[in-house]
Amino acid sequence: MDTKVLSDRSSGNSAPPEAAPSHFICNIVSDDLKQNKNNGRVHTRFPPEPNGYLHIGHAKSICLNFGLAQEFGGKCNLRFDDTNPSKEEVEYVESIKQDVRWLGFDWEGREFYASDYFERLYDFAVDLIKAGKAFICDLTAEQMREHRGTLTEPGKNSPYRERNVEENMELFARMRAGEFLDGSRTLRAKIDMASPNINMRDPVLYRILRATHHRTGDKWCIYPTYDFAHGQSDSIEGITHSICTLEFEDHRPLYDWFLDELKIHHPQQIEFARLNLTYTVLSKRKLLQLVRDKHVNGWDDPRMPTLSGIRRRGYPAEAIRNFCERIGVAKRNSTVDIAMLEHSVREDLNKRAPRVMAVLRPIKVVLENCPDDKVEELEAVNNPEDPAAGTRKVPFSKTLYIEQDDFREEPPKGFFRLSPGKEVRLRYAYIIKCTEVVKDPSGAITELRCTYDPETKSGSAQASRKVKATIHWVSATHARVAEVRLYEQLFNKEDPDDVPEGVNWLSGLNLNSLEVLPTCKVEPYLANAKPGERFQFERLGYFCVDAVDSSPSKLVFNRTVTLRDSWAKIEKAGKKSQLLF
Ligand code: ATP
Ligand code: MG
User: Residue whose CA is closest, atom 8 of ligand 1?
Assistant: First the structure.
């Protein structure tokens, strides 16, 4: 495991070197340490609810919690807040563990579950009842809503609020024993129905729910609410800094109330802004809907913002960690441009992805002056950013494929790639000239007849003759066929949630977010590419071998991210006469 993940600040951002505090939570922890608070301990946790797969927003929380522990020599637990058996599943627990590990973090065996604490939470509830701070309420959910009041009006006391301790104790024990119907009674805290903070208006601590729990089975028919379990679980684990997202700011007085009334270890809750990204949604409920309604092919669909989705798409864990460091930690909600995430991915892959040639939309080129049996092994550089990556051989022969886009029968002004009578350089190889365009009866181009100039081999003494463009290619006889999947944003709109009243957020789905190209031609070097392996297809982008569908007999690549799109920039700037490659 890389223990330098967050403390290594030398990698391309403006934060000062050394382990200097870089955001307000670092500052708080660092000050606490200076004052020897918690006896100099730093203990954080990442507390997912196992009701869905983790997404890129969770990565921010993971990097923050594990990163603080690493930076300050502390510990970070992985704790599943599994208080809602009707929505939770083992599948989610397993995926979450896999994702945290993949991101590069290690909980060192401290894998905990709120459900491990059910007995203690029950005892805490009994303590509150005994202290006259909790009562059994017989109001239905509907009635409770009516009593709750609004932001501007105080709530009303439940008629059951003044039950005495003995009666409450007896009823709570009978709730646990399964004597009452689901939803017929609750245990509520006795705080203040007139509090301006609605969370303090006698919140529910326990509900009756006959649901099989993924860990405790049918042992319990009452379950603590998330609010009653979360803070106490942190307390039980000796967490020093309970870091959570801003929506829990209003819950903090309630969590403090529980800890104070129960007189137990009091972690310090600190809230930070959750990550939002353009062109996607980061709500587990919505992601679940995309999966269930089959708008995507599962939680690990490469278009999903889930960690399993972006992993399958080819995003490296290092790039995600860099991104999380780059976006920082703030107190105010904002939305990050997805281009910034893609930038982190490109930056990472640029350094380490081997370059190869692949033709996605092939058009055949026959070199008329090339002997039928000529096969020349040309030397190609694996990664210009990394000399240690070495070179490889690329076969060259009479029949090649080039990209349809790299040929125009009638080239517009500024188009310097191949066209009739014009020359272009083949990467690592020779200059070729188009002599004839062969078409089928419908007029579609089937083949280009070209000649090559044997004097112009790349790297040779006579190679100095200049042409304006270099294109990629593969030898037809040596190429492997591959399926390539091109992905675009999942939503057309920057903010998919920004829909008029009555319009479904799904209406913003980009129906062209997946394009499958089944007959791409890739150089033979890729025949042995392993699942998950990443490459730069020269001039096209970064691609990775699909870990699910690819096999030696059928190669499948996912486009991870395009290269920077210079054409779009040129077009945007209205300067179409510039080089077109
Ligand atoms: P939901 O989508 O149902 O609201 P959640 O995203 O809060 O759920 P949890 O499993 O409760 O899911 O999240 C685990 C931890 O990750 C929490 O501490 C939560 O605050 C944090 N987290 C969740 N989403 C984000 C986000 N977008 N940015 C940063 N942290 C997040
Ligand atoms: Mg949550």
Answer: 284
State residue 14's pLDDT score. Answer: 39
Per the prediction, the chain carries an average pLDDT of: 93
Supply the residue whose CA is at minimum distance from atom 13 of ligand 1.
48
pLDDT in tens, 226-277: 999 999 999 999 999 999 999 999 999 999 999 999 999 999 999 999 999 9
Give the separation between CA 62 and CA 48, rounded to whole angstroms.
10
φ/ψ (deg, to 5) at 271 = -100, 145
How far, in Å, CA of 323 to CA of 341, rounded? 6
> Which has the minimum average pLDDT: 17-21, 77-81, 205-209, 340-344?
17-21
Looking at 29-133, which runs of residues are DSSP E strands?
43-46, 75-80, 111-113
**Cβ 334 under 6 angstroms from ligand 1:** no
Catalytic machinery residues: 49, 274, 284
Q: How many A from CA of 61 to the centre of ligand 1?
A: 8
Choose which residue among 25, 44, 58 to substitute to test ligand 1 binding: the one with the highest number of ligand atoms within 8 A of its C-beta.
Answer: 58
CB 451 within 8 A of CB 368: yes
Nearest CA to ligand 1 atom 4: 283
CA–CA distance, 393 with 405 (Å, rounded to integer): 25
The CA 284 to ligand 2 mean position distance, Å, reads 9
Average pLDDT over residues 42-57: 97
Taking alpha carbons only, the member of 339, 319, 311, 353 closest to residue 540 is 353
pLDDT band at 148 (very low <50, low <70, confident <90, very high): very high
Quote the CA–CA distance of 157 and 10 in Å, as a whole number: 58
The answer, yes or no, to whether any atom of ligand 1 lies below 6 A from the CB of 188, is no
* The pLDDT value given to residue 460: 79
What pLDDT is recorded for position 462?
A: 67
Q: Could you give the CA distance from residue 212 to residue 440 in angstroms, rounded to a whole number?
A: 65
